[in-house]
Specification:
433 residues, alpha/beta, Aspartate Aminotransferase, domain 2, Aspartate Aminotransferase, domain 1, 3 domains, eight-stranded mixed β-sheet, four-stranded antiparallel β-sheet, 15 strands, 35% helix
Length: 433
């Protein structure tokens, strides 16, 4: 124990944390969640350290996190934001900047994506008055069907924005080649897939932007939080402007005159010398994180590789335990050339399987095994998207199949072999029942 007041606070927090009864999940007695956070005493003490600073907004912890997470994701720049959904909004909005000239995404531009996904991968397209072009996905991998890319492209196509679903990766070689061929932007939504690799390279490094989420369900957590990543200096500056009210100035919070010419700028119709801190080059937002969130992110990041390894081990345990069910189930497969960072374990009931997904999911929930649908199923069948401007390639047959037949169960690091083997037993029982 140390004697200075700050140390006394953190020492007391450690003592409190260690006094808490351990959280256990007893298969068959306690609910096995499909996802969850894993917090340890260092997360609590770093949170308290940040709160004792009483800086509150983004500060020293946010700066450290951005630097360390950029390095982890093998990128040059990281901008921390308040959610993964905000990360997608900032990344896409940045591509609408007039500073990008002929590559600027404008209202009416088309953006290739998939209908089997999470809404906030698609929402920024609509929020910027662009047109999503929906492709189907492949069963087993649940990733974009790259055979439809050429058919999807038109003279209005400006970008591809798609997620690495459930920690698997989409075919980055094919998508990157397609984007290079037609000079298209690529936004990789990595919210489910932090730490996954394709051809040995980190996901996110293939795109112009990558996005991540730090919601409690994800690989590391801040409670709420997300990040935008890029290695393009121009895109970083634009994204930072959109995140920080749309301002032209790039000074960090609490700092002035980084450019050395704060009162010498002449932009727009403003008078010469107007304070650069209050010049706005974009119609932006305020989507920064607090330093307390970043403090937890820093300690979580130290455990990220262990979390990822445990998730992948749990995937192997569950897939082995379900061996022999392939007559009735489509079990997940890694995309060729990929090293997934599994977020969940997707399962599809085959068309000839008499048990319907709803019945199986209800059976599992009644036996204390948590399940989730594959997010929105088919987005264009959701009430919010029924009348949006869009183009659809083909009949989205696999997407509809997923909507009706697919669910996923958890792999997160608090689970172990006992939980996963119990989960497999209940899945088998549901099929028999």
């Amino acid at each position: 124990m140390q004697n200075n007041p700050r140390s006394k606070v953190t020492d007391a927090a450690i003592e409190y944390f260690r006094s808490l009864p351990p959280k256990t999940i007893r298969p068959g007695l306690d609910y096995i969640p499909p996802s969850g956070k894993v917090l340890t005493e260092d997360d609590l003490t770093n949170l308290i350290e940040a709160s004792l600073d009483m800086w509150l907004t983004a500060g020293r912890f946010a700066t450290q996190f951005e630097s360390q997470f950029a390095a982890f994701m093998e990128q040059k720049f990281c901008l921390a934001v308040n959610s993964g959904s905000s990360a997608n909004l900032i990344a896409f909005s940045a591509l609408t900047s007039p500073t990008l000239k002929e590559r600027q995404i404008t209202p009416g531009s088309e953006v290739i994506t998939v209908a089997a996904g999470f809404p906030t991968t698609v929402n920024p397209i609509l929020q910027n008055h662009c047109v999503p072009v929906f492709l189907d996905v492949t069963l087993g991998t649940y990733q974009i069907d790259v055979s439809q890319l050429e058919e999807a492209r038109s003279d209005k196509t400006k970008a591809v924005m798609v997620a690495h679903t459930l920690g698997n990766t989409f075919d980055l070689a094919a998508v990157r080649e397609f984007c290079d061929k037609y000079d298209l932007w690529l936004v990789e939504d990595c919210c489910d897939a932090v730490g996954a690799r394709y051809d040995g390279k980190m996901v996110g490094t293939y795109g112009d932007f990558a996005t991540t989420s730090f919601y409690p369900a994800h690989h590391i957590t801040m409670g709420e939080g997300g990040a935008v990543l890029t290695s393009n200096k121009q895109l970083k500056k634009i994204a930072e402007s959109f995140r920080d009210w749309g301002r032209d100035c790039w000074c960090e919070a609490g700092k002035d005159n980084t450019c050395g010419a704060r009162f010498k700028w002449k932009l727009g119709d403003l008078p010469e010398g107007y304070d650069h801190k209050y010049i706005y080059s974009h119609v932006g937002y305020n989507l920064k994180i607090s330093d307390m969130q970043a403090a937890i992110g820093l300690t979580q990041l130290k455990k990220a590789n262990d979390f990822i390894a445990t998730r992948n081990e749990n995937f192997d345990i569950l897939k082995t335990a379900l061996k022999g069910t392939e007559e009735h189930l489509i079990l997940p497969e890694a995309t060729p050339r990929s090293e997934p960072s599994w977020f969940g374990f997707p399962i599809s009931l085959r068309n000839d399987q008499p048990s319907k997904r709803k019945e199986v999911a209800e059976y599992l929930e009644n036996h204390k095994v948590g399940t989730r649908n594959l997010f929105a199923g088919n987005l264009i069948r959701q009430p919010a998207y029924s009348d949006i401007p869009k183009r659809v390639i083909g009949d989205l047959q696999n997407t509809d199949f997923i909507m009706n037949n697919t669910f996923w169960v958890g792999l997160y690091p608090a689970l172990n072999r006992e939980h996963l083997e119990y989960t497999a037993e209940q899945i088998k029982s549901a099929l028999k029942g």
